[in-house]
What does this fold into?
Amino acid sequence: MIQTTKVPELIDPQAKFTSNGQEAWRLLGIMAEFAVATERLRGLRPAVSMFGSARIRAGNPYYDKAEQIARKLSDAGFAVISGGGPGIMEAANKGAHAGRSPAIGLNILLPQEQAGNEYQDVSFDFRYFFSRKMMFVRFASAYVVMPGGFGTLDELSECLTLVQTGKSRRIPIILVGGDFWRGLVDWMRDSLAGTGMIGTEDLELIQILEDPDAIVEAIFNFYEGRGFQPTRSEREKMLNL
It folds into this structure.
């Protein structure tokens, strides 16, 4: 005789303590963040999202490199988007703030109280990671990924997944710091592509560059002949992320 699972056993015992009203307010909060952030960032294209560790301080070679890259991007006409906090995020905003184009900080409210850096021309405080990550993707014409920890890996993985699956448009994904990233890329080639978990062509979504001028040039080369504005089909993709 086949024993069936009783329906009550499928119900989360904590569900009885969850208020439907609280969930509804949370959804409204997420919607409000989407609406307000989208309105504030609407005119800031083209933009480049820069990711990296919050733990790196001024004087570290990666901090200095991030600042140089952001300054080059800003002077070339790109708004630079960072997470708004310390470390690489601060370096990115600092470099952009010193240049011609806006430095944008998408801050996240954390229990540890991440403090926003002082180099933000446009800033927005998010309560929800979900809506914050959406803004990084939606307004970026390229991603520049500096060395970082779990948060940086999460953002890199999110970008790769959206582009690989066609949920987001194809844009440059540039890793900075070959010594730092080479092991990961080799693992992707050997363990992911080598066992069929991804296609070998998926590795072409990533490029490793070191020189700030080469990074700016690579982004311009990608858009040569088509411009930075998303096509109609790309806009449709971004609306359905």
User: Anything to note?
Assistant: The chain is about 45% helix and 10% strand. The beta strands are 47-51, 79-82, 103-108, 122-126, 142-145, 173-175, 206-208. The chain has a mean pLDDT of 88. The longest strand covers residues 103-108.
